[in-house]
């Protein structure tokens, strides 16, 4: 009895210390107002149809850990960047940097991935160079999206040649790809399940851009958030990576080895 009582006492003490530590950590976070965060539809990152995705899970954990009130909405990616730049939106997720974006946005990285070119098989295209050289090839991209260095170069080159079709999201691009109005589109691992679901995988091939994985992260508006606030929110992302939370979220959507590869980076 004495041993059981001692064990119970120790467990209660441990829980109490944990709760106290969590409360103390929450108290350190300065919530100056109600914040705003926008999600965008993109494969496994977020689907409005099922209200599920990696970015939604990340957002919920950010809100829980900060203890702040955050209004979450859904917007096209191009609109998100406009509002981040103006300061009318505080946060978004899974963003990548560029020299232009670095002027008005700060980032806290939580995963990194490579980009690929999805090409219709009936084009006879077997390399990135073949796609670029063939004037009949049209590329589909999501408006305002940037990618890795080689992918950006291809997009910019074809844009100058008037060979790029833009859309607000993946769904319309899949549709015009199946119709043959475009012959290729830039994709990433979050898009792979949709290729099977929409029966696109059987009619297409995937070519890899020979670039290093690109970091993606929490986007913070420099216009809306002070440097101190940016540090606070960045610290939450860092803690989520250190304690394995980000990995566990990715493992809900990917096999363990791919999840680990996506979230393990410097």
Written overview of the protein:
It is a single chain. With 266 residues, the protein is of the alpha/beta class. It folds into 2 domains: 133 residues, 3-Layer(aba) Sandwich (D-Maltodextrin-Binding Protein, domain 2), CATH 3.40.190.10; 93 residues, Periplasmic binding protein-like II (D-Maltodextrin-Binding Protein, domain 2). The strands form 2 sheets. A 5-stranded mixed beta sheet has the order 2-1-3-10-4. Strands 7-6-8-5-9 form a 5-stranded mixed beta sheet. The longest helix is centred in the first third of the chain and has 27 residues. About 5% of the residues have low confidence.
Annotate the secondary structure layout.
Blueprint: H1 2-28, E1 35-39, H2 54-66, E2 70-74, H3 77-86, E3 91-95, E4 105-113, E5 116-120, H4 128-133, E6 139-142, H5 149-160, E7 164-167, H6 170-179, E8 184-187, H7 192-197, E9 204-208, E10 214-221, H8 227-242, H9 245-251, H10 256-263
Parallel strand pairs: 1-2, 1-3, 6-7, 6-8
Antiparallel strand pairs: 3-10, 4-10, 5-8, 5-9
Helix pairs in contact: 9-10
């Amino acid at each position: 009895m004495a041993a059981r009582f001692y064990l119970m006492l120790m467990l209660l003490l441990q829980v109490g210390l944990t709760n106290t530590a969590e409360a103390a950590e929450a108290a350190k976070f300065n919530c100056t107002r109600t914040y705003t965060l926008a999600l965008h539809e993109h494969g496994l990152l977020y689907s409005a149809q099922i209200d599920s995705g990696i970015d939604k899970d990340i957002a919920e954990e950010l809100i829980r850990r900060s203890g702040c009130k955050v209004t979450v909405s859904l917007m096209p990616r191009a609109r998100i960047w406009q509002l981040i730049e103006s300061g009318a939106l505080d946060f978004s997720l899974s963003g990548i940097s560029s020299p232009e974006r670095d002027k008005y946005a700060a980032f806290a990285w939580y995963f990194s991935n490579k980009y690929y070119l999805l090409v219709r098989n009936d084009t006879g295209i077997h390399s990135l160079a073949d796609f670029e050289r063939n004037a009949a090839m049209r590329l589909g991209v999501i408006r305002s999206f940037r990618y890795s260095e080689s992918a950006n170069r291809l997009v910019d080159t074809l844009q100058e040649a008037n060979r790029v079709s833009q859309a607000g999201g993946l769904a319309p691009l899949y549709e015009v790809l199946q119709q043959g109005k475009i012959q290729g589109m830039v994709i990433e691992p979050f898009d792979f399940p949709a290729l099977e679901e929409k029966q696109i995988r059987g009619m297409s091939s995937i070519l890899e851009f020979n670039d290093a994985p690109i970091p993606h992260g929490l986007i913070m508006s420099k216009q809306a958030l002070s440097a101190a606030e940016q540090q606070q929110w960045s610290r939450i992302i860092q803690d989520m990576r250190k304690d394995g939370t980000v990995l566990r979220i990715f493992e809900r959507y990917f096999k363990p080895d791919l999840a680990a590869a996506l979230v393990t980076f410097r």
